[in-house]
Amino acid sequence: MAKATSIPYSSFEFEYWLNKAVEWGQATTTESQQDVCLHLPKLQEFLKHIYGTIQHMNTTAALKLFPMIGQLLGRLCWNPFVAAHDESQQNLLECLWCLYSADPENAVEQKANDWILSLQQNLISVDQEVRSFIQSLNYLEEDYHRELLKNLVSSLVKQLQNNQCDRSFLFLRLPTERWRIFSILCLPIITLPEVVPLVEALLTCCVGGLDEPLSPEFLDSVSNSLLQKKIFLSESAIMNLWLRYLPCLEQTILHLTESLVSNPCASLADVEAIITESLLPKVSAYHPSLFRVIDDLFRIILLKSDGHPKIITIIQAFSRCFVQALLQVQTQMPLKLYFPHNQQSLVVALLTNPSDVPSAAWCQHLIIIVQMLKRTVQDENVERTTNVFENWFLLVHFGDWLNIALQQLMTADDLSDLLLWLLMFYNNPLMAHQQEKQLLMDMKFMYNQLKDLGCRTNLNLEDVETSLAIKVSLKESHLKDLINQVLVSFLLFTEGGNRIAKEAIKLFALGGHRVDGVSELLICTAHRLKNTQCRGSDNSEMQTTIKFLRQLLRCNSTSNMYKECIFH
Fold it and tell me: How many domains is the chain partitioned into structurally?
């Protein structure tokens, strides 16, 4: 890149090179080609001085100083012998970019912009005359096109790298406006593979100041191209895109969520693989501020979907991936930066993977979780609605412990009150005290009924239906979810429940989200048990439960959308 100079060339010298450009035309004769080659070194020097003179001017001022500069640069760009030469093309492009206005202030600057974009298109394309000329040189048109584009990209990247490396030399630093211009000039060619180095150089550049130097149109275009898999960038470039421009991060989250919801064959293992591949868990682990942005967007999606089970499953899958990524961060940051609205001891307890806790200690761990949660949500010194919601949303993230609670509900001897309260809070966090007290009594009655039924050797479906109808109102949707969860626990983890499980599927046909909730619960349970088995907690009882779940999922007509469940 040329150093700046304040010495403009004389009108005579400018006229000399303009006449040369007219004389050369498109260099189709041997004589003109030889003359171009003879004069290229001096032409390059001339263009460097022009660039040094106008690089800090606006377009209007540059045109006043050099009224014929458009004709000169245009004719040189149309000359393939000049444009195909690496250094000459770089000199031309540098001069052109100085004349481009990110925000044209008058008709002249707008016309100059249109003209520059047209010239840029010419530099990376060929017309019939140039095509004939290329063929006469036995040079493939595709190679010519590719090399021109590579030169264009290389020229820009070189300038950007110089700007990064030579910060001590103020005269070499590019004005912030130039960064924006470069990003705008990328728009027509952003999806071409040859342009990837330029896109990455722009995204990873560090420019001082509070304002983002790259144009929003460029950042949006990069984000859309990534989501449509039209371009592929490095992890650092993608992370920088999200850090520079939060709308791109939000667009990525929405696209990921929509694609996972609309993908009928994705298993939970596939879902986690897709989430990990998106880089969202990794960038969340390294940047707590971005985690909070992602978490807030998930919160909005969950509320707008009225707590749809599929959205909850996606949030829980993301949380598992996030925790894995968090464990790989070398410099651990305080969890308060990720979960600023929650008691940190509760966060730590929920963040612990159940497979990292011996199954014999699950009950004690759940007692700790429930006791901390109850103290927190019943704290009279904190605004209740916000406090309850924040802790409920935290509980939503770590669904494996809720899944463990359902399993312990039917396999443990005690804990029924604590575990029932946890499930009640999860399904209806804003219950009034009297309502909570009455529901706990009703649920405990039903729970005891099911525990007794689970020991029967001649259990039938009518007995279960009768026990569910007693004392428990099915009018409210959250109660239907709660009853379905307890019933699933009964069917999976008691001998009597296993016997009638296939018949009991029809009890779940309560309509709406209820069916999805049961399917998601079955799949999440199977996924958890499979992961626990893979981590070495292998026993015959677990294998039997997994085998039974496989059969139950196959016969469950509500879960046909999961044709390739988690059992590969």
Answer: 2
